[in-house]
Write a structure and sequence with these properties.
flat, mainly alpha, about 80% helix, about 60 residues, DUF2304 family protein
């Protein structure tokens, strides 16, 4: 598990650097995809899923 968390943190830092740079390339997108796959296999996945579901519910209940 420690290796997985280390990889997630490394990929998260790389994704932030790439996005702040403003030049998102194919390799940068690949890093972001890998970050998503690693996050999905961590213990944070249910928390992220619940947060996204709650956000989607709030947005769907908004009236223009």
């Amino acid at each position: 598990m420690a290796i997985s968390v280390s990889v997630v943190l490394l990929l998260l830092i790389l994704a932030i650097v790439f996005l702040r740079n403003g030049a998102l390339k194919i390799t940068h997108a690949l890093v972001c995809v890998l970050l998503g796959f690693y996050l999905a296999s961590t213990s944070m996945a249910p928390t992220i899923q619940n947060g996204l579901t709650a956000t989607a519910n709030i947005v769907s209940n908004l009236n223009p």
